[in-house]
Amino acid sequence: MSEHVIELEKLSKVYRDKRLKPVQGLQELSLQVRAGEAFGFAGPNGAGKSTTIKILTGILRPTSGHARIHGLDTTDHRARRKLGYVPENPYLYDYLTPLEMLRMGARMRGMKGRGVTSHCMGWLERFGLGAVAKKRIRTLSKGMTQRVALGHAMVGNPELLILDEPLSGLDPIWRQEVVETLIAYRNQGGTLFFSSHVLTDVEQLGDRFGIIHRGRLRTIGSPTELRGGSNEQMMIVSLGTFPVPGALSRASGGWETQVKADALWNKLHELEQAQHRILEIRPVGLRLEQAFMRFIQDEDLKDISLQKAAAEQPR
Ligand SMILES: Nc1ncnc2c1ncn2[C@@H]1O[C@H](COP(=O)(O)OP(=O)(O)OP(=O)(O)O)[C@@H](O)[C@H]1O
User: Fold this and answer.
1) Which CATH architecture has domain 230-284?
2) Which is deepest, 2, 90, 98, 312, by most CB within 10 Å?
3) What is the mean pLDDT of the chain?
4) Cα 51 to ligand 1 centre (Å)
5) Which class would CATH give 4-220?
6) What ipTM, to 2 d.p.?
């Protein structure tokens, strides 16, 4: 059995447009996701995120390369046995109620007996749907329908959750609630693979992010690595009578000391020796979203210069 829950190996997908001209959806994409990891797949519109997810969930076949879940090719239905999946625009049987939908999900996962209804109600209440559990899905708002789809994916206790833009359609309060539910799922040992083109909400959720652009994987790293690794700067705010080297006094009182992340502990020790009281420690500078935008722009420039170089080649 493979130690990786997800393995993508040189995965490529070529679509055909209306005139049957090839459209490259994915190009030789390779990555692995370990058990218990939360992996975020980030990229702008049309980057290839949904294509990857559709191949992983067996909806599409790759043109070449392999996608495996627990070592099984995703064209094999057994690969999806312990999988929970929410597509970007979930289609639910809208004449059913949320409770019926979740009971169906639980039964599909082999759950039986009296406990099933209360298990399903537990998930509906967790997603704020207790009061509408017996209303038809067609009468619910978009955000509520999205939460029913999440409940449907969670109710079967999946070992792997694949979510395409899980927070789209949710208001800020529910975005935070869903992020917390997903963090709890990961902390209990679940593996998570999710896509997003907006990183602000999911920054706290991913252990690693892969950045995809125009069908090619451009980089993979932890949020800290993508923000600039050990060059990340930290700000320490402290109160004390005597300054320490590098500390600037603040108009509102106390001191601000900016250090590289890898020098943080030494500086804290220095401040402690100088009898400072630490009020706050926070990262300074780039958020993941900004790092991502800068990365995509740099890659665009690289793509443009490669295209120019190719065009200038003598034929
Ligand atoms: N059925 C299809 N036929 C032709 N081209 C397609 C098809 N599906 C996707 N594509 C193309 O493949 C590329 C990748 O699309 P994909 O939907 O995977 O991107 P995405 O990253 O999920 O984008 P979004 O964030 O907008 O959902 C795009 O150029 C898209 O136009």
Assistant:
1) 2-Layer Sandwich (3.30)
2) 98
3) 88
4) 6
5) alpha beta
6) 0.97
